[in-house]
Amino acid sequence: MLASVRMTAELSTPDIPEEAIGARRRARACTAWVFVLTNGFLLASAGLYWLARGRFFDPRIYEAVGGPSWTLMEVLDADVLRLVSAGVRFAGMLAILAGILVMAVGATAFRRGERWAWYAMLALPLYVTLDFMALAGYGALSPTNVIWDAALMVTALFALVVPYRRFFPPQLGQVNP
Predict the structure, then answer these.
(1) Is residue 32 classed exposed, middle or buried when 0-12, 13-18 and 19+ CB atoms within 10 A define those classes?
(2) What DSSP element (H or E) covers 117?
(3) Number of domain units in the chain
(4) Keyword set for this entry (predicted)?
């Protein structure tokens, strides 16, 4: 009996009421889903651009990966250009679908605090990391790519870190650090 009273005293903080701590946590967790929604919107927007234009944001990617620039490819080999454009448009369709899925999960299950949604959103920083590694592997990193990947990574990490305690509350008997 005495041990449980001592443990309860350790878990509570004397100067801040438990209701205030819970209210702050809920407020942070309530805003975190907006970061997921933003990340999904950014993915879908990029996909829409790729689908409409048939090329990536940064034309230096083509020079780093294939050698000639996009404008030179238009002159040299229009068939290869059409193939690359079709691949970029396909990537755009996939990015739109991924963005819609991320926004749907963010607006529903993530907002409700369902743990599976938090685990599913771990795919966002993984995607950004793989994208960054692929670009770096081809030597195609540019300020545009780095800023884009950094924006996606920051929003993804905020979405995962800010509501962490809502998805994984401390177990009874554990002392909060």
Answers:
(1) buried
(2) helix 115-120
(3) 1
(4) Membrane, Transmembrane, Transmembrane helix
Predicted confidence at residue 31, as pLDDT, reads 83
Question: Which pair of tokens denotes residue 69?
Answer: 């620039």
Q: What is the identity of the amino acid at 81? A: L
Tell me the per-residue pLDDT of 67-95, one tens digit each, with 9 for 90 and over. 777 778 778 888 888 888 999 999 999 99
In a domain, 54, yes or no: yes
Q: Which residue segment(s) compose the domain that 38 sits in?
A: 29-161
Asked if the structure places residue 149 within a domain, the reply is: yes
Structure tokens at 110: 């993530």
Quickly count: other Cβ atoms within 10 Å of residue 91's Cβ: 15
Residue 3 lies in a domain: no
Determine, yes or no, domain membership for 78: yes
